[in-house]
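Run folding on both entries below.
>entry_1
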Amino acid sequence: MNSLELVCRYSLPPNKLGYCGPQDCSALLKECIDSPEDADKEKVKTALEQFHALMPYLNMIANKNGLSAFDSEVLEAYWIGNSLLEQVEKRDLQRLVLKDFLGKGFLPKKIAEEKAAAVKEGMTPHHSFHVLHINFLNRELSSIVKNLSECLVQWGEVKDVTIKGLKVKGIELFKNGRDLNMREKIKTVENPYKLDAGERDLVSVHWKQAVQILSKDEFTEMKKYTLKNLEAVNK
């Protein structure tokens, strides 16, 4: 899978729901997924640059590691997790919230300042940081636990392949007092990208859709950085 196909796979589910990115780019993203070698890469990048919750993180990870925003390692860091995340400091995340989310009008001043002040040591610019700490820039999408859980990129072990999709032993968020916690859940998720997944394969899930088959290393990294941000949020 090339880097643009990867970011399109993760970006398409919330875009089709109207939660993230330009409303008229779903067909373009899907074309990149279906025929990545034939896709107009510049058009795809231009569309992705309008995803206001995505690009600030990609730019920051890239700048801190001397790379470009659409380099495969950068996209992997944000969506799955890798060591590039470790180069980003607490003050970088605080600056991102104030400059990119408050400065461009995506968060109200009071909320942005509270979010920036509440950034903790150990947090990383993994997608889970945005879900668990920032929540949503789309003000029509409420930050209830069910929505946060669906937006979080999850992992799951395939238990069965059915007509409806993949039956997986996955995860979900739930509220335990003031804390967000995670627990296992058996569920069926859609398989829109027709992953050739079988029993015991590990897959990632975004907005109830299987996105990619994960290697053991990718699974380890995704779990590591998600739990790291979850632990920091609950401190």
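>entry_2
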Amino acid sequence: MIDFIKNYQELLAQTLGKIPVEKVAEAVGWLKEARDAGRQVFICGNGGSAATASHFVCDVLKGCSYNRPSRFRIFALNDNIPTMTAYSNDVSYDCVFVEQLKNLANPGDVLICISGSGNSPNVLRAAEYANQAGVKTIGLTGRDGGQLGRLSKLEVNISDPHMGRIEDGHMIVCHMMAYYFMETEKGTTGGC
């Protein structure tokens, strides 16, 4: 048992060492530009990627915005459960993210798509629409990047075959982005 755990730890350290930090820095720049221009940031994913998206939104809404003069406008499309289930039931699961973007997104906004395989149909539809609508697309992908890697204007790829380590890497990338704002741009003290 301990050998498996140590092996996972060693492989994860190797995976994290391959995170393309220059691309993460570019993504931080896009987020800063969006925030400063009052643009909306959207994020979406399925399963563990949805959990990562929700976690990132929480970090940004509180940690990167609370008591700060510049605040983020950010929303996880996968958190809108009633809308997602309505579209899934009445139309198709493939359109649960893109249909929300059609209502909410404007040119200059940012969409972060998370897919370990890079081939989730609903995430791909969202990225395709965003590109056509003038929304900047960031893809957090795994393995070879899949179709999402090719669709994204900016891809941050965790090049590992293991989905667990891909998801671990995506969370680390999201923390890198959020903690950049939390720790380099200090807010004021006080409560709401």
